[in-house]
Amino acid sequence: MSVAIPDFVILLAEDEPADAHLVKMALKENRILADLHQVVDGREALEFLRREGGAFCRRAAPRPDPA
Asked: How far apart are CA 17 and CA 51, in angstroms?
């Protein structure tokens, strides 16, 4: 059995659980493989992006290429 590798890494900043659930369901229904990280506010999102130990910072956050 092979393991599916996500096509995208998505950081979802959403404080409403119902809205976050809708996003998750839309990804699933459209067969979009994504490594989804959910945070509840902008502060947690910035912590994730800055690698400051945010709630969902389990691995290095992806960074855009500045070139």
From this structure: 24
pLDDT tens for 26-64 read 999 999 999 899 999 999 998 888 875 544 444 555 666
DSSP state of 53: -
3-class state of residue 15 by DSSP:
coil
Query: What gap in Å lies between CA 57 and CA 40, rounded to an integer?
Result: 14
Give the chain's domain count: 1
Say what the pTM is: 0.66
Q: Is there a domain that residue 3 lies in?
A: yes
Phi, psi of 64 (to 5 degrees): -70, 150
Residue 42's domain comprises 1-61
